[in-house]
Amino acid sequence: MNPGLYLAIAGAAIAVALSGTGSAKGIGIVGSAASGALSEDPKKFGKYILLVALPGTQGIYGFVMGFLTIQKIGLLTGQIVQLSVTQGLEVFFMNLPIAISGLFSAIHQGKVCAGGVNLISKQEGEMGKALVMGVLVEFYAVLGLLVSIFVWMFLTF
Predict the structure, then answer these.
(1) Could you tell me if 148 and 98 are in contact, meaning their C-beta atoms sit under 8 angstroms apart?
(2) How far is the C-alpha of 70 from the C-alpha of 84, rounded, in Å?
(3) Does a structural domain hold residue 15?
(4) How many domains does the chain have?
(5) pLDDT single digits (tens) 78-115
(6) Quick check: 120 and 50 in contact, CB under 8 A?
(7) Which of 75, 54, 67 is nearest to 16 (CA)?
């Protein structure tokens, strides 16, 4: 393998690792809030689980980008593309938008959703408001994914 290929693989790993780390942290934050709230009213589990799952989507986005990256460089087919260092850097940087936005948005989404759990525990009919606030944070992870995919689409070797 050459240095360009190492950089490309590192880019895929960064996309998966950082967005996955953010998702784990975000789910942990909102999951802790939901666990406490469930001790008071276990019947609200169905409402809380949506908020708990929401920060997990960033990890999925990072996984998708990592998968697209290894597909692009030929690791899935066995026909590995020989990349220059410059091309490897292009692939590496292609993954940064979802890696960074996935990391930070998932953590902050967990905080927002934890607030949503508190809202629902006091006012059960406000589920929609809690969900909308969590989805607003999601928007920035989606933008990061779109930027990474757009670069992926137009990157040629």
Answers:
(1) yes
(2) 16
(3) yes
(4) 1
(5) 999 999 999 999 999 999 999 999 999 999 999 999 99
(6) no
(7) 67
